[in-house]
Amino acid sequence: xxxxxPHVVAGLIAAVAFCLxxxxxxxxxxxxxxxxxxxIAIAWLAxxxxxxxxxxxxxxxx
Length: 62
Known about the structure:
Elements: H1 5-57
């Protein structure tokens, strides 16, 4: 069977669609990793600030 122009065009469109799908999946995974790192950084910052406020409240002179 000989490939005709519509078959080749459909194959190229499918290849581009698969490449875009894999790139999108990679971006989702990468952005999820950065989101996790950001959440961990915010949690650590909040925890350290709460710990600092608690330790400073015990040292206040009234």
